[in-house]
Write a structure and sequence with these properties.
Keywords: ATP-binding, Kinase, Nucleotide-binding, Phosphoprotein, Transferase. This is Adenylyl-sulfate kinase. InterPro entries: APS (IPR002891), APS_kinase_dom (IPR059117), P-loop_NTPase (IPR027417), Sulf_AdTrans/APS_kinase (IPR050512). It catalyses: adenosine 5'-phosphosulfate + ATP = 3'-phosphoadenylyl sulfate + ADP + H(+). Belongs to the APS kinase family. The protein is of the alpha/beta class. It has one domain: Rossmann fold (3-Layer(aba) Sandwich). The chain is built from seven helices and five strands. It has a five-stranded parallel beta sheet, with helices on both faces. The mean pLDDT is 90.
Length: 178
């Protein structure tokens, strides 16, 4: 069994439909298949369903959601557990706070253009947001502040899921996390 040499928080940020969850799931599977242990996944949709279902999507509620998630990530990472977190996390200030509070924060910007995210939208959320049926929707009625200096940038329109996962995997190996 291979364990992380040090805890980390690999934080995938990007618009809804950018590919965060798909990439996070595939990276997690790759690590588990290579016998890496002490890896946990935190996903925005699952956290909203299980841990923060009392919160909405106002800026304040988004901040409270990320505050709770970063607390969990902090506990895990400081105990030598690798965390793969996939959250829209639209505000730079929130991501900076998470970086300050967690061990070995790695910001991953899933840089997928809005028009591609809208084409991938199987839930119809963008359409609902554009017609006013959903308020506070990131990228439409709420802002997404693009990371200015992420540790890793993945352009899903130019590479496969496997290439994206390999980019993250190689970063973790080359930077001594495993």
């Amino acid at each position: 069994m291979n364990k992380p040499k040090k805890g980390f928080v690999l934080w995938l940020t990007g618009l809804s439909g950018a590919g965060k969850t798909t990439i996070a799931d595939a990276l997690y599977d790759k690590l588990i298949n290579k016998s890496y242990v002490n890896i946990e996944k935190l996903d925005g949709d699952i956290i909203r369903e299980k841990l923060t279902k009392d919160l909405g999507f106002t800026k304040e509620d988004r901040q409270k959601n990320l505050e709770r998630v970063s607390f969990v990530a902090k506990l895990l990472s400081r105990n030598n557990i690798g965390v793969i977190a996939s959250f829209i996390s639209p505000y730079k200030q929130d991501r900076q706070e998470i970086k300050k509070s967690t061990t070995n924060f790695i910001e991953v910007y899933i840089a997928t253009p809005l028009e591609i995210c809208e084409k991938r939208d199987v839930k119809g959320l963008y359409k609902k947001a554009r017609t006013g049926k959903i308020n506070n929707f990131t990228g439409i009625s709420d802002p997404y502040e693009i990371p200015t200096n992420p540790d890793i940038e993945i352009k899903t329109q130019n590479q496969t899921i496997e290439e994206s996962v390999n980019q993250l995997y190689n970063y973790l190996i080359n930077n001594g996390y495993f």
